[in-house]
Each structure stands twice: as structure tokens, then as C-alpha cells.
Amino acid sequence: MTTYQEDPQALAPGASPTHPPSAPQSPQVPTAARPKFSLNGAALQSRWDAAWDHAQRWVLEQRDDAALLIPASLYLCVVGALMFDSVGIAIALGITVLLARLGPNISADTMLSLYRAQPIAPRQGAALRSAIALLSERAGLSSQPAIAIIPSMAIGVFSVGRHPRTAILLTEGLLRRFSLREIVAIAAHEIAHIKAGDLPTFSLGDAMTRFAQLLSYAGGILFVIGAAVWLLGETLLNWWPIALLILAPFLNSQLQLSLSRQREYNADRLAATLLGDPTQVVSVALAMEPDFGSPLDDFRLPVPQRRNPIPSPIRAHIAGAERAERLRAAENNPLMQPLTVADEPLVSLVGVGPIEMRPRDRWPGLWF
């Protein structure tokens, strides 16, 4: 039996149990000064000011996507130019556009299918469902995310989809390691990502990882062909683009691991607000140290990738101790009424054997 108790003394001024305070905002990014144009009429000047402010907001909202796409586009253009000259550059730009359009829009159902995630049955996980419903209401989401379990003993959790159709995916290993109270705190962090609109960027980054794996395979095939031709005394292939293709997973990992970590700090702060208790988030942060993998993983066959069950862009998670320290330092973080969760038996994928749940490479280039 799960109970939720609210302590009126812990309620921040101006907050309410079902209407959360505003989500923590990222630090203000310096913006360019508005160009001064002398327009005839107050109406024209007002439209110009509104258009400039809208453009600045769009750049700030899309900066993470741009941080992924611009370096990837330059890389593809270099490879394309070395292989096919101007035609290769045109192909590279076309691929960039496809990634930008399709990557952020991968549906939650597609991700559930790729990870073989099983939605929990209506009769299961009543306590977890209730907690996530309340957290979603506090976050102001129009619909609560679905819950699904990945049949793997790896430790991992992430959210997929695009609001309002989203889902939180938890591995069996995570359910067995953490208590319900801790899992609710983990879910609050994922709901904070959904509220902040981070999921399309995560989806784009994961699509780029799959594409980088394809490029690596293409580079490997061309290397074998080039080696065979070289042994026959011919030198028909350019080795530079082949080397760049083989390096694609490594370069992609370095790019995504260097992404801004501010979204993680913001998600922790909003999770603490929704739970009404920063100590829960601190405890989970200290217990879930991220696994960045090894650079050698990006060259291992049959799948060049980091051995980690969560999508690649989320591996930018910072060390747990640093997350905990940042959260402790946020003394002015507004809190809602504390949410108290009593433990009860959790969902388990009964009938899935231990061999099936052993972490390993799976099609199409996933590891869980």
C-alpha cells in the first residue's frame, strides 16, 4: 500500500500541491544586441522587435540540436568531398536535413519495439503508476508518460517519445536494485526531462549514433576492398575518407559526451521540486554513477558502440557526486509538499530467463 502525505510546512510560498513553480531556468546566455533600425511607424518597429525576440528564443531552444548537427554536417561534407567532390557535399547536406527532420520525431512506440520493452499490465505497479501520475500533474504535463520494462539485468532508465506521447523505460536490473522510493525519484528526474522538452534532442542524438555505426560498417567494407586492390598492385581508393568512416562512432561519442550538462542540473532541481525532498534526488544521484564506456568500445566488432543500455546522448550524465553537490548548493530551489512513498513489491518480467536478460548486443546496434 502506497500513501502520499503532504506537509503544509514544506510548501514554498506561492506553490500548490498540483501547480508546480516554474521549472528551473538555464543560466542566461548572452545574446546579441538588437540591431537598431529606424522604421517608419510604431507598428513596424513593434513587429521588428517581436521578430528579433522570437529569433533569439528559437536559437536558444535549438542550440543543443545545432551543437549535434553542425559538427556532424561538417564531418559528412568532408567525407563526401573527399569521395565524390561537389556531389558528395550535396549528399552530405541532404543526409543532415533528413537527420534533422526525422531524428527528433522517433515515436515512443518505435523505441519500445527496439528495446523490446514490455508495458506493465494494468494490474501491476499500482504504486509506481500513482506516483508517476501525481508527479506528472505537479509538473503540469497534459498526459502522464507510460511505463515499460526492458528485459535486461543492466542498470538503466530513460524516457522516449515526444510530448504528449511519451514513455519511461526502466530495466529489470534497475527494478531489482533500487527501492520503490528511489525509483520514484528516478522517475521524477525523467519527468523533468519531459517537461523541459529534452526528449527530441535525445532522440536526434541516438539516431546519429545508429547512422555513425552504418558509416563505420561502410568504412570497414571499403577498407577490405582497398586492401585487396592494394595487394594486387593497384591504388584506386582514397584512404582518408575510409579512415574517417571507420572513426565515425568514436567521433560521435566524443561529440555527444561533450554536450552541455546544464540540462541534467535543471532536471535534478525540478525533480527535487516535484518530490518536495532534495535528499531523495541526492541519494539516487550518488547511487547511479554513469558508465561512459571506453573509447575502445567504438571500434569493437560486431557493433562499434559504448556498452551502455541508455541512448548515447543521455550518457552525458555527470558524476553522481557532482550532481549531488550542485543540488545541495541550490538552497533557494522552491519545493512542493513532500511526497512520501511506502515500499511495496515491484513489477518483474516473470518468465524471461536469465540468459535472455544478460546484457549483450542486440539488433539494430543496441546494447542492453
Written overview of the protein:
This protein is α+β, with helices and mostly antiparallel strands and 368 residues long. The protein has one domain. The protein is 51% helix and 7% strand. The chain has twelve helices and six strands. The protein has helices spanning 42-61, 63-102, 108-114, 126-139, 172-177, 180-196, 199-231, 239-246, 248-257, 262-275, 278-287, 320-329; strands spanning 118-119, 146-150, 157-162, 165-171, 361-362, 366-367. Strands 1-2-4-3 form a four-stranded mixed sheet, sandwiched between helices. Strand 3 (157-162) and strand 4 form a beta hairpin. Helix 2 (63-102) packs across helix 7. The protein is globular and about 75 Å long.
In short:
This protein has helices at 42-61, 63-102, 108-114, 126-139, 172-177, 180-196, 199-231, 239-246, 248-257, 262-275, 278-287, 320-329, and strands spanning 118-119, 146-150, 157-162, 165-171, 361-362, 366-367. By secondary structure, the protein is of the alpha+beta class. The chain has one domain (106-367).
